[in-house]
Every structure is written in C-alpha cells, then in structure tokens.
Amino acid sequence: AQSVTQPDIHITVSEGASLELRCNYSYGATPYLFWYVQSPGQGLQLLLKYFSGDTLVQGIKGFEAEFKRSQSSFNLRKPSVHWSDAAEYFCAVGPGNQGGKLIFGQGTELSVKP
Amino acid sequence: DADVTQTPRNRITKTGKRIMLECSQTKGHDRMYWYRQDPGLGLRLIYYSFDVKDINKGEISDGYSVSRQAQAKFSLSLESAIPNQTALYFCATSDRTGGRNEQFFGPGTRLTVL
Questions:
Q1: Suppose B46 and one of B34, B69, B97, B113 were both cysteines; which one would form an S-S bond, judging by CB atoms 3.0 to 4.6 Å apart?
Q2: Helical H runs in B1-114?
Q3: CA-closest candidate to residue A82, choices A63, A106, A98
Q4: Contacts (Cβ under 8 Å, ≥6 apart) of A51
C-alpha cells in the first residue's frame, strides 16, 4: 500500500537550534517527493521537491531535505530555526509520471521556543 | 493576486443543508483537486479532475460531489451536510506538463457543520 508516515506529530525546538523532521514513505514506483508548509490560517506552500538527481535538495527559507532510497526516507532539515518557522509541515509523495495524485503524511506541527 | 482562490473562506451551516465550495484558478493548469484536512490525518483527497471532462473519486468521496464548470473552476458540493464533514477544505491545481504533479494550493475553506 502507498503511504507516507511522519512519526512526529508535534516537535518543539528552541530558536536557533537545528531541526530535522522525519518522513518515511511506502511507494511501489519511482517517487516524486515534496515538503509543504502550512502557516496558521494559510494554505500549503511548497518548500522543496525531489524528482531525481542529487539526493540533497535545497528549498526556500533555508530548508533542505535528503532523499535516502535505501531507508525510504525524505527528512527535512534546517540548521537554525527562526520563530517564523512555527507551522505545520507535510511530506507528500507522488508518482513519477503524468497520472499523478499526491499522498500526504499526517503532518508535523513545529513550535519554536524563544 | 492569488493564483488559486476559494470561496467562502469560512462557513458555518446546519446539518442537512446543501453547501457549495468554489475554487477558481488563474494558473492555466488543467488538473484540479479537492482535499479535506483534519487534525492528525493530514490531507485526504476527495475528488480530482484532470480536465473538464475527466472527474475521479478520491479516497473519501462519499457525501461529496463536484462540478468542473470550466478549466479554471472546480466546485465541491455537500448535498446534505453532516457534522463529521466539519473540516478545512483545500483546492489545489497542477499542470500535466512535465508530469511532475507539483500542486499549488488555495487558502482553504473552514467549514463547520452544526
């Protein structure tokens, strides 16, 4: 079955600390992978995406993610968190063809302590 | 100006009422989607449309219907609303060009069914 798992429902980090949000997927075909962020009262904004090539991808707002095929993971990282990063983060996977629907994880809510 | 707009942004209604949520896009994309978001469940796909004449059920279509009035417009209807349809609803679009299915989201409609 195709699925995306974000094991951490809620994470709290101190401002300036590093961050890693976990994402594991189960997908039968070559996956396209995405991270979206949802700020309070807002829609979803694309942070970054992986289609192929270099397994370390850079996104907006200083985020990066690393695709590890052997671990079926696509973890999101940021070296130094800012208070404005407090939001909910969603990992999603889609097919590597034109038929695509996305499957979303449950989301991880990030809180940032001053 | 927003590329994907949703109306209304907030709606409170009563059990048994018919409700229509509307989505319009100016991105020129041919694919449109309706999702609902519930706490702890992430986003779940209700319906999707790959062009005006192609409409498909998603994983949770029961109790919902859709209409693709034009390439730019995709409406979601709740024929007889019930309280467990209280949720945040998102419309999204994507472009089949390149087949990568990156999706762009509207700001969401918060629906409360009493």
A1: B34
A2: none
A3: A63
A4: A32, A96, B100
User: In terms of CA atoms, which chain A residue is nearest residue B108?
Assistant: A43
Strand segments (E) across A1-114: 3-5, 10-14, 19-21, 24-26, 31-38, 44-50, 56-58, 64-68, 73-78, 87-95, 103-104, 108-113
- Which residue is it, tokens 């969401």? B108
- Chain A residues in contact with chain B using a Cβ-Cβ cutoff of 8 Å: 4, 6, 9, 32, 34, 36, 42-46, 49, 51, 90, 94-98, 100-102, 104-107
Per the listing, tokens 């995405």 go with A34
Among the ranges given (A100-104, B66-70, B78-82), the one the predictor scored with the smallest mean pLDDT: A100-104
Give me the residue from A94, A101, A105 closest to B42, CB to CB. Answer: A105
Two tokens, residue B37: 């978001």
**What does the pLDDT read at residue A54?**
87
B2 and B103 in contact (C-beta within 8 Å)?
no
* Residue recorded with tokens 């918060």: B110
pLDDT digits (tens, 9 = 90+) for A60-96: 999 999 999 999 999 999 999 999 999 999 999 987 6
Q: Which residues contact A53 (CB under 8 A, 6 or more apart)?
A: none
End-to-end CA separation in angstroms for chain B: 33
Backbone angles phi, psi at A11, to 5 degrees: -130, 140
